[in-house]
Amino acid sequence: MISKVFKVLREKRGAGFEEFVLEKIVPIAGYTTCENLGIEDSDLRDELWREVDIIVNTAATIKFDERVFPWSNKNISLIVPQLMFAESGLVLEKAFEMGETLNDTLDLDIEHERKVVRETLDDLQAQGVTKEFERTATKELGLQRARQYGWPNTYVFTKAMGEMLIGLLRGDLPVTILRPSIITSTIREPFPRWTEGIR
């Protein structure tokens, strides 16, 4: 909680800042790629299902030339465990609707994409190429596959695949997808020109 991002809250709350945060935030160790989000304690899972109203997934890989591995790319692979966890016990309420609806990419078959990548990897390994060559080749494959379906780069391509998975697997779960038009630095808070990470 020592990050500059909390500057405004720290100034508002003064000496009570730490106590305020501890009342509002409960950190829970888990793994977003595992069944039940890696939470083995059944009492804790039951409590989460009773108390949680919203799951916000902001995990993503943001490289525009990421290698496309549908089974490991965060824009795709983190969706299934989170949906399964939510379906297992959350109380379902009507979704808050805002912005665009889930969109489909015509003729995009995620299983086929997995097969294309797997076959490409097998072929490269059979040729005995270096890891660096493999990395470059799979990045190029990602861009090629993205552009084939009308996406400019692998970031938006994998985000589209993630949204398709949500559409296919969500069942009756209320889902809202928010897409910021651009991510840039702040004007004022927590301080001028703040941005997380390198952009």
Automatic annotation (TrEMBL):
Protein name: Fatty acyl-CoA reductase
The UniProt record lists the keyword Cell division: no
Pfam family, one: NAD_binding_4
Catalytic activity: a long-chain fatty acyl-CoA + 2 NADPH + 2 H(+) = a long-chain primary fatty alcohol + 2 NADP(+) + CoA
Domain of life: Eukaryota
Domain named Thioester reductase (TE): residues: 17-198
UniProt keyword terms in alphabetical order: Lipid biosynthesis, Lipid metabolism, NADP, Oxidoreductase
GO biological process: long-chain fatty-acyl-CoA metabolic process; suberin biosynthetic process
Gene3D superfamilies named in the record: NAD(P)-binding Rossmann-like Domain (3.40.50.720)
Gene Ontology MF term list: alcohol-forming long-chain fatty acyl-CoA reductase activity; alcohol-forming very long-chain fatty acyl-CoA reductase activity
Keyword Lipid biosynthesis: yes
Function: Catalyzes the reduction of fatty acyl-CoA to fatty alcohols.
Family: Belongs to the fatty acyl-CoA reductase family.
Annotated organism of origin: Kingdonia uniflora
Enzyme Commission no: 1.2.1.84
